[in-house]
Amino acid sequence: MSNKLSSSVPTDREVVLGILNNSEDALNRLYIGYFPMVLKFILNNNGDEDDAKDVYQEAIIILYNKIKSGDFELSSKLKTYIYSVCRRIWLKKLSQQSKKTTNNLSDFEDVIAVEVDVEVHEEKDLQFEKMGSALLNLGEPCKTIIQDFYINNLSMQDICEKFGYTNTDNAKTQKYKCLQRLKKLFFQS
Amino acid sequence: MKNNIELEAIIDDYLQGRLSEEEVIALEQLRLNDPSVDHKIVTHKAFLDSLNQYGNVLSLKQQMEKAHQQIDVAALSEELRPHPSIVIKLWRRNKSAFAIAAAFLLLTISSIYSIQHSSSQNGTYEVMRREITNIKNNQNRLVRTINSSTSKTEKGPVKNAKFGGTGFALTANGYLCTNFHVIRDADSVYVQNNKGESFKAKVVYRDLQYDIAILKITDEAFEPLSNLPYKLKKNSIGMGENVYTLGYPKDDVVLGDGYISSKTGHAGDTTQYQVAIPINPGNSGGPLLDNYGNVIGVITAKENQVDGATFAIKSRYIQEALNAIPQDSLGKKVVFSKKNPLQGLSRTKQIDKIQNYVYMIKVYN
User: What is the maximum span of chain B, computed from C-alpha positions, in angstroms?
Assistant: First the structure.
């Protein structure tokens, strides 16, 4: 392992604590630290840079959700975990592409069982896609109002000023109408 | 319809924690009485969770995008791409194997060098693991057959151990501390407690530099110990302090008594104490305890040709070794602490308690 790499990769504890405390720096270092490992794996198994990026980001999301949900136990190294998740996702993608399973992957790291985590994530990813398309169909200004209020945590007052509503009650009514429509779109799809 | 929107608005505020106390009580009352309201709250909660999750993932993706831009992907992939040349492919795949081979080579060279180097001094540093001789084996075998014919069936390996040492429990769930040199080139490791029961163990951590190894008892027959009676002492200890050790230079536990004679070890090594204590092969890896029953070090070696110069690694380095093991797998562990349950007990009582946590390490290769 080269010196340069090991000095930039944060320790496993740092990552877990960092993610729990929403530290952007920890995430940054985690991302940069393990990307080469995944890139190498994908490049050596019939993938390109974009595949590596997609697979890797999915794996980071899985790790992030797992840590955030609080049931993450550091029973293996993070490196092994990330590698195993990426491997699992890539295997699935390969088998979808070619309709046949490839079982001669070139491996570079230890692998642990992560099937359950990946499946849970697929479920969540479906929800994410649904919400994304529902928001898209919602159109403006509803989309921005909902995002500002529920995701960016702006106050009603801020939203009122941003969109030029005469008073917060008007903005509130508008927000609830938008929310109703979004809910309908989300549960219909 | 208007009523409905109002209710939804109240539920939304309720789930986001923006209602006043009375309003919360009123809504919860309504929820109890009207299942359709309860249903609305549950669906709305699921919806809000999805929305929340969506927001989190979205911002995570943005952050990752930012991080991704800092990486020079083109250069990296050039470096990591599968290479047409077979030699380089082979090198990359087996990098770790090559590294291990190289490390072994280095280790051999350096140990040969250090043996030659240290022999030029007056005394040599002699590690105290026990080479169990053939004669002793025969005796052991005799004792064991007698034992097994009387009552319980003998567990553990049939063959006799090649090397022996001592180790002591660090956690109640079977992590033990011993010397690295005790378990060096071990094929398999068994530990035996003072009742004569053997358990299979595996090496989970090796520290060549400080000569510390951590074992984990993996045997199914092993039952977790009750709470450890002793503590690790954090601060270093003064010269002249009375200390003692328990170890297995023979098949039963043996007490050694002495005092700290220097705060540095062999050739001024600050990671060790020099202790005036009689020890014999087999004592390696035993705990060094002070009068209050605190673990202050691990017996590791003695200088031959010099009387009463035994060396013990300071307890601080045990803690460092422990830190290298995932914390959740350790369970209840020994900690640095000022208060100690053994404090105030007479030495006989202390030993009575401690000896259940000191193990004979048997190494097979």
Answer: 99
**pTM of the model as a whole:** 0.46
Query: Scanning the structure block, which residue is given the tokens 């017996």?
Result: B299
Closest CA to B246 of B97, B348, B137: B348
Question: Measured in whole angstroms, how far is the alpha carbon of residue A120 from the centre of its chain?
Answer: 13
Which stretches of B176-297 are DSSP H helices? 180-183
Q: Give the C-alpha separation, B56 to B61, whole Å.
A: 9
Search chain A and give the residue with CA nearest B97.
A108
B76 vs A187: CB contact, 8 Å cut-off?
no
Domain ranges of chain B: 2-70, 89-120, 127-364
Measured from the Cβ of residue A157, the count of other Cβ atoms closer than 10 Å reads 10
**If you count residue pairs, one on A and one on B, with CB atoms under 8 Å apart, how many are there?**
102
| pLDDT tens for each residue of B12-25 | 777 777 777 787 88
Q: Which of B24, B50, B187 is nearest to A126 (CA)?
A: B50
Give the DSSP H/E element, type plus range, for residue B274.
strand B272-276
Alpha-carbon distance of B104 to B119, in angstroms, equals 22
Here the ipTM equals 0.80
CATH number of B127-364: 2.40.10.120
Give yes or no for A80 touching B (CB within 8 A): no
Contact B63 A187 (CB under 8 A): no
Cβ-defined contact of B77 to A49 (cutoff 8 Å): yes
Query: Which of A24, A36, A40 is the closest to B63 by Cβ?
Result: A24
The answer to whether B292 and B275 have CB atoms below 8 angstroms apart is no
Question: Looking at the partner chain, which of A128, A130, A177 has a beta carbon nearest the beta carbon of B57?
Answer: A128
Question: How far is residue B176's CA from residue B227's CA, in Å, rounded to a whole number?
Answer: 14
Q: How far apart are CA A24 and CA B221, in angstroms?
A: 47
Contact: B64, A36; criterion CB under 8 Å? no
For chain A, what is the mean pLDDT?
A: 80
